[in-house]
Amino acid sequence: MSLLSLKNISKRYLSDRGEWTEIVRISSFELNSGEQVLLQGESGSGKSTLLNMIAGIVTADTGEISLDGADMRLLRESARDAHRARSLGYVFQNFNLLDAYSCIENVELGMAFGGKTDVEFARKLLERVGLSERLNYRPDQLSQGQKQRVAIARALANRPKLVLADEPTGNLDPSNAAIALDLIQSLCRENGTALLLVSHNPSLRDKFERTIDLMELNEASVSPTETGGLS
Ligand code: ADP
Ligand code: MG
Description:
Elements: E1 4-14, E2 20-31, E3 36-40, H1 47-54, E4 62-67, E5 70-71, H2 77-87, E6 88-92, H3 103-113, H4 119-128, H5 144-155, E7 162-166, H6 174-190, E8 194-198, E9 210-213, H7 214-221
Parallel strand pairs: 3-8, 3-9, 6-7, 7-8
Antiparallel strand pairs: 1-2, 1-4, 4-5
The structure holds adenosine-5'-diphosphate and magnesium ion.
């Protein structure tokens, strides 16, 4: 059984001109345990919307999203939050660290949402991303590259089944981008965690065993049989 399975997912938004626009329409997508997949697609193609639907932050209009055996759409809010904290890590383009807390507290807070805190593992993760000398620094005392490394450690804090990464290198210079990408991929591999990473940078294709273009995935979904043979 696959770790993540999407079936007949669709999402539309009301534009400011009052028209409904379908942003995402996917008939089928599967991701296996431990697999690393790159998701590409131009700006506005629905990449962030798709990741947020998988995380249960945005609700899909139709279809089923099953993650590690649970349908995110059918869970009540509290159960969904708990399932998300245990099963998922999320890395954002702008890091999303809590500025009032130190590096190690940011990682521990990620653990607390999952139900238990393991200070030793938090320390180990921060050492693994090269920040053993910065455990008690706050985010505003770190470089951009260091901030993203804290966020990567936090995403792995609950030993999740899947890490979602939304343009995680978008705010980094090339050398820090390469370090961050390498850390995300290695840490996921070391922990048996699958990875779904969004980037518009085509040079990342070489680093992934599978690349998906969201536009193609959307188009492939709208087959003549499914649209009732519209012509
Ligand atoms: P990407 O991450 O690929 O750049 P997004 O998923 O952020 O794309 O957005 C896809 C499209 O959906 C965009 O046109 C965006 O304006 C629209 N969109 C996203 N969120 C909302 C919302 N809450 N309300 C209306 N439109 C939205
Ligand atoms: Mg986006």
